[in-house]
Amino acid sequence: MRGPTLGSVAGVTLDRWLPDPAIATRHCRAADASPAELWQAASALRLRDTHRLGRMVRWRIPGLAAGMTYHDMFRTYPFCVLDEDEHTLVSGLCGKIWTMARDYPAIEDADAFAAWDEPGTVRVAFAHCARALDDGRAELVSEARVQPVDRHARLRLRAIWAVLGPFERLVAAEPLALAARRAERGRRR
């Protein structure tokens, strides 16, 4: 399940945060837009704009407003910013992602994320960036990795991924396609 690592202007990769993930996903979407236009369109997406993913996120993290942008969501509890630059945002969260309870501890900063080792939990990192392509277009990239802290967490993660994994491609690519369409529409105006 592991694809090439995410590159960015700042050279951020998720290998720095989770070098040995049990799950790694990656989605890309090109658009006839600049990296800045594509990043602006992606940063403005709200949970309610993405029907499948928005509902799933709000179900898994109760209390999030439908009008919240994904950009803001990845900057607030239960997430913490691990790294960022002009067109890149890397965020993380820790906890028991397979429970129905909102079992996500508050992670203060990147150092606390890197040091996290609570038994029976995972660390999850998300990276999003917009970057230039050789043909003059830009590409929006989204990568996620999940790394269990111990064997118990690995078994729990494997069980939930067996159920959710087959649907991941249908759900996770939705915001990238929407952001690409909006960036291209904005360019034509």
Give a verbal description of the structure.
The protein is 33% helix and 24% strand. It has a five-stranded antiparallel β-sheet with strand order 1-5-4-3-2. It is globular and about 50 Å long. The N terminus is likely disordered. The N and C termini lie far apart (39 Å). The chain contains seven helices and five strands, in the order βαααββαββααα. Helix 1 crosses helix 7. The protein is of the alpha+beta class and 189 residues long.
Question: How is the topology of this model organized?
Answer:
Elements: E1 23-31, H1 35-43, H2 51-60, H3 70-73, E2 80-85, E3 88-95, H4 110-115, E4 122-132, E5 138-148, H5 151-164, H6 168-172, H7 174-188
Helix pairs in contact: 1-7
Output the keywords.
189 residues, disordered N terminus, alpha+beta, 7 helices, single chain
Distance between the termini: 39 Å
Please tally the helical runs, counting DSSP H or I stretches of 4 or more residues.
7
- Helix/strand order, N-terminal first: EHHHEEHEEHHH
- Helical amount among residues, as a percent range? 25-40%
> Any idea what the radius of gyration is?
16 Å
Major β-sheet strand ordering: 1-5-4-3-2
Which geometry do the CA atoms define? globular
**In this structure, how is the largest beta sheet organized?**
5 strands, antiparallel
Class inferred from helices and paired strands: alpha+beta
Question: How many DSSP E strands?
Answer: 5
Average residue pLDDT: 87
Low-confidence blocks of residues: 1-11
**Into which percentage range does the β-strand content fall?**
15-25%
